[in-house]
Amino acid sequence: MSASWSGLFRKEWILLKWLTIGIVVLNALVILAVPSVITNLTGVSGTLYEHTHIVAGTWFALYTFSGAGILLYSLTKEMNTPDIWLHSPRSMFQLAGAKALLSAFIAIATLFLGGLLAGIMFYILGDWSTDSVWRGALALISILLAISLKSCFLMAVGFFFWSLYQVIRVRMRFFVVPLTVMLFFLALAIWEMLRINDFFDWLRTLIPIKLTNESFYNEQADYLFTGFVRDGIVFSVGSVLFYAVLIYVLLAAGSRLFEKKVRL
């Protein structure tokens, strides 16, 4: 890693250090404490094991937005100091890229930390054999990997539309919200056209990666995961290549838009 990238990552870490610590603490509270509160204080039916499954599933599903949230937090923290952007010898793509890479790393690392805590809780509360522990661990890793990939993609989408919003707000302040929303739904319509034409199902057939044949779609506890790891397939080589290109394009386009905002 070059000295310039190391410097950018160090700057970002200083900016995001306390947010990261807060996320780690929140992970521990949600996974370890919330199920006990639900079981013992709210009167909701179900065992502690079942509540841990449901709480962890909901929390991990929400984690798909964590990368976008961390990146936008980092950007907005420096919005009032444009000199950082204007006088830097680095390109806007490098500056935004460093933020995106560290945001993605923090999101994925803290997600797997939450997964580790959830796995420990499942092991303590459940009746597991050695074989079932291994199959359960592979199922959990499958879910975490799929969520990590989706989090990176949503981070790139969030950055692009946030940058687009910033540019439109400068030029057409009154129409910024309806115009941004309209463009977002236009992109959503194109995405839906691809979906209904089975484009994503075709991508899933291009060298699919499947860690386990374990069925972890229990209707009572794990229903939230059906959309993340359908048929046990974490991802395919084709889908990873497609999303990697799309993430790069969105980050590059978002960087260009954000550069226009900074220079206006």
What this model shows, in words?
The chain is mainly alpha-helical and 264 residues long. It contains 9 helices and 2 strands; from the N terminus they run ααααααααββα. It has a two-stranded antiparallel ribbon.
Which descriptors apply to this entry?
264 residues, mainly alpha, two-stranded antiparallel ribbon, 9 helices, globular
Question: Segments where pLDDT lies below 50 for 5+ residues?
Answer: none
Sketch the major β-sheet: 2 strands, antiparallel
Number of helices: 9
Shape: globular
Proportion in β-strands:
under 5%
H and E string: HHHHHHHHEEH
Computed Rg: 21 Å
Write the layout of secondary structure elements.
Elements: H1 3-42, H2 48-62, H3 66-77, H4 83-86, H5 92-125, H6 130-171, H7 176-196, H8 199-204, E1 208-209, E2 235-236, H9 237-263
Antiparallel strand pairs: 1-2
Helix pairs in contact: 1-2, 1-5, 2-5, 3-5, 3-6, 5-6, 5-9, 6-7, 6-9
Structure described in brief:
With 264 residues, the chain is mainly alpha-helical.
